[in-house]
Amino acid sequence: MDSTIERRISPGQYIDLLNSSGLGERRPVDTPEAIAMMLEHAKLIATAWDGEALAGAARCFTDFAYVTYCSDLCVRREYQRQGIGRELLRAILRAAPCRIVRLAAPAAVDYYPRIGFTRHPSARTLLPGELA
Q1: Which end of the chain is more exposed for a tag (fewer CB within 10 A), N or C?
Q2: What is the Cα–Cα distance from 93 to 98, expressed in whole angstroms?
Q3: Phi, psi (5° rounding) for residue 114?
Q4: Residue 82: exposed, middle, or buried by beta-carbon count in 10 A (0-12, 13-18, 19+)?
Q5: Is the pLDDT of residue 4 over 80?
Q6: What distance in Å separates the CA atoms of residue 130 and residue 70, rounded to the nearest whole number?
Q7: In angstroms, what is the C-alpha Rg of the chain?
Q8: Residue pair 41/60 in contact by the 8 Å Cβ criterion
């Protein structure tokens, strides 16, 4: 398995990966334009490849000094439980050696403590139109 931050991915490849990882149900996979913007505006993307097959990706925003927010960490179901997610995070940490913040999808909430993440009880979210 090869992981890199140099290899670009297309919106179609990312949509396929999101759907095959289970994260597609929580992302706008029916709107390729939104996926294209998500990829274009991410500051740092690490990908894992099995030959020409995209096995996983970590899509992040970072200032490279203090914090990196990992908005997506996804691995195809057939590649899960092989350490690929951990390797993607290592690639992110090599590129941006600072703290990583991650909000876990409900299905992955038990995964992150197993690889070293600590719980942060004060995280909050705000959707468009909800600002008081």
Answers
A1: C
A2: 7
A3: -65, -25
A4: middle
A5: no
A6: 23
A7: 14
A8: no
**Which residues, in sequence order, are bridge partners of residue 125?**
none
pLDDT of 93 strictly over 80 = yes
| Spatial distance between the Cα atoms of 50 and 54, rounded to a whole number of angstroms | 6
CA 19 – CA 112 distance, rounded (Å): 20
Q: Contact 62/73 with Cβ under 8 angstroms?
A: no
Using CA atoms, how far residue 126 sits from 115, 123, 131, in Å, is: 27, 11, 7
Q: Given a cut of 90, is residue 23 above it in pLDDT?
A: yes
Domains of the chain, earliest start first:
2-114 (3.40.630.30)
Give the residue from 97, 98, 24, 99 showing the smallest Cα distance to 57: 24
pTM for this model (two decimals): 0.91
Residue pair 34/18 in contact by the 8 Å Cβ criterion: no
DSSP H stretches of helix in the chain: 11-21, 32-41, 84-95, 111-114
